[in-house]
Amino acid sequence: xxxxxxAALPALAIIALLALWEALVRLMDIPAYVLPSPSAVLAAxxxxxxxxxxxxxxxxxxxxxxxxxxxxxxxxxxxxxxxSEKVKAILYPILVVTQTVPMIVLSPxxxxxxxxGAAPKILTVVLMCFFPIVVSFTDGMGQIAPGYxxxxxxxxxxxxxxxxxxxxxxxxxxxxxxxxxxxxxxISGAVVGEWVASQAGIGYYLLRVKNSYALDKxxxxxxxxxxxSLMMNGLITLLQRLCLPHLYRKDQGRNRx
Length: 257
What we know:
With 257 residues, this protein is an all-alpha fold. It has helices spanning 3-27, 38-47, 49-83, 85-98, 103-114, 119-142, 146-154, 159-196, 202-211, 215-243, 245-256. Helix content is 85%, strand content 0%. Helix 3 (49-83) packs across helix 6.
């Protein structure tokens, strides 16, 4: 099956599901406060487009800030754990434990210490995005064949050169895989932080329309969250194609066969 055909199947399935949803709401005369139709959701999305765009900008800014901090910390800590097995044995279990606590529980604590500004929202994004990036990056560096490292050592290369010339370039595909996962989480992390305490952002907008029982606008905000998450994932994919064009060309060659 061609790649274009594989990509079309999910889109057709979603269109069919939305058509069935629209038909059921109309045929069964379901009230909008119980289940709005897709057309009503799109109408609400268009009606509140200015407010949604404004709140989306704030949420995206928080997500990008958290992603940037997560990337820097993940690369630094990943290299540290790769250098020392003892450090990895100490830190890795702690990183796993951080993923067992729901962010909705930690967000009030972060707000208590950091206030009601952007800082607790960004830190919530960091806590959600850091783990997949650092794990992917560390595993990527750990999978390199020892022969490549020994070759650099043979020519008198130091530890910094080993990482800049061999280990980091080799681990870039794994790093981007972790970034794609984290990018999808980033919007959710920002929204969770906004749920607890905020005066702007998609999370704040969602709570506001929930309190007014505007179900169509609630669905519209959920749709925006999905679109923003896909946008963040697409941004990382674009960045990967720019940084690793040889991998993209290799995938294209496989699809032609």
